[in-house]
């Protein structure tokens, strides 16, 4: 009995962690793979005829990756095309140069894995491609080096083409962009100077020395969303209505830029909502907008109407929106403010970056006192 329970616990580790893809994602994977394999089979048959093998079984495993986990580094176009082509060349070479088929098969897969790591085209089904070149029988042996082109490269290209069309038609980002070069001198936004950065992730993954089947950009996005969720749990009671500015100064669209500038200076504010005489919210005008317009038309400020300067695409939020919903837009999109619109579509307040900072500071003070 002492051995049974440890064995049971150990056996339970064989069972993988539950997956979380939605039903939509699972259906897309199944339908996409079925369409892609059928199309690849038919097109390859049409192009290559029946004189030679036109379709190989490892394409089924490739389809699982391209449609089941299209975000995986193992499923990217270069991974399938480069990995399968490399594996086929190595497999043919081992089959021709090594007399023992068992030894040739093992060496072909080992060399394929080693070179795929070096060439950044790791693709698990490529191991089966290498074995197919060794154990595929007379039909494959007869092809010789041509096996790498027909059917391997043709199959891989067609399958990748279908994956590109299908995944993007369903708005699944494919292929995934490569990580940003660490030497890039693009200015770092404020939100990127704190928390976990891409460089942090890369350094930790390099230190671990093991392959992790997730794109670094996706991992960073997941961590960012987890941080937001944790922040929402911590500051869950803080809503826009709690700290928004309720006393608003507005301006009509036919007012001049000079009038708008006077209002901004008089009330020491940076933003004016633009509303019609009927009270309809039309847009916003900021001090930056007025300065930019003054540089273009220094002599027309007294007559130039606000309607030609205001921004009609402006950030907005609801009174019950949580504060963390504004933190990232303010930092990542360089927003100055967000207009607070109630469910009836009425302008009820204004939230600035200073308001958010003050609200978070006050909340932290209150939590500190309570502790």
UniProtKB/TrEMBL annotation:
Name this protein carries in UniProt: Conserved uncharacterized protein
Parts of the chain that traverse the membrane: 27-48, 54-71, 104-122, 143-166
Coiled-coil residue spans: none
Species name: Erwinia billingiae (strain Eb661)
PROSITE patterns linked: CBS
Keyword check for Lyase: no
CBS domain sequence ranges: 244-301, 310-366
A Pfam family matched in the record: CBS
Keywords: CBS domain, Membrane, Transmembrane, Transmembrane helix
């Amino acid at each position: 009995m002492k051995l049974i329970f440890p064995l049971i616990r150990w056996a339970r580790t064989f069972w993988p962690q539950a997956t979380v893809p939605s039903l939509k994602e699972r259906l897309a994977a199944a339908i996409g793979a079925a369409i892609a394999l059928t199309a690849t089979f038919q097109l390859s048959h049409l192009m290559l005829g029946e004189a030679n093998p036109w379709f190989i079984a490892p394409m089924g495993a490739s389809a699982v990756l391209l449609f089941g986990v299209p975000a995986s580094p193992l499923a990217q176009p270069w991974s399938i095309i480069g990995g399968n082509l490399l594996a086929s060349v190595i497999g043919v070479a081992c089959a021709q140069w090594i007399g023992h088929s068992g030894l040739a098969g093992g060496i072909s897969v080992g060399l394929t894995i080693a070179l795929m790591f070096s060439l950044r085209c790791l693709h698990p089904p490529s191991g089966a491609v290498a074995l197919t070149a060794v154990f595929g029988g007379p039909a494959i042996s007869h092809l010789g080096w041509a096996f790498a082109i027909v059917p391997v490269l043709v199959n891989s290209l067609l399958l990748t083409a279908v994956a590109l069309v299908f995944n993007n038609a369903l708005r699944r980002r494919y292929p995934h962009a490569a990580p940003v070069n660490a030497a890039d001198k693009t200015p770092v936004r404020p939100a990127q100077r704190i928390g976990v950065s891409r460089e942090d992730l890369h350094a930790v993954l390099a230190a671990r020395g093991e392959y992790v089947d997730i794109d670094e950009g996706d991992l960073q996005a997941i961590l960012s969303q987890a941080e937001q969720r944790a922040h929402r749990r911590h500051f869950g009671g803080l809503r826009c209505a709690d700290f928004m500015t309720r006393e608003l100064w507005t301006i009509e669209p036919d007012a001049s830029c000079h009038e708008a500038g006077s209002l901004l200076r008089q009330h020491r504010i940076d933003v004016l909502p633009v509303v019609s005489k009927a009270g309809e919210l039309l847009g916003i005008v900021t001090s930056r907008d007025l300065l930019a317009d003054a540089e273009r038309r220094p002599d027309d400020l007294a007559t130039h109407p606000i309607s030609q300067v205001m921004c009609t695409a402006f950030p907005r939020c609801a009174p019950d929106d949580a504060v963390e919903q504004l933190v990232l837009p303010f930092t990542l999109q360089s927003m100055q403010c967000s207009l607070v619109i109630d469910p009836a579509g009425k302008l009820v307040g204004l939230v600035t970056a200073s308001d958010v900072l003050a609200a978070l500071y006050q909340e932290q003070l209150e939590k500190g006192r309570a502790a």
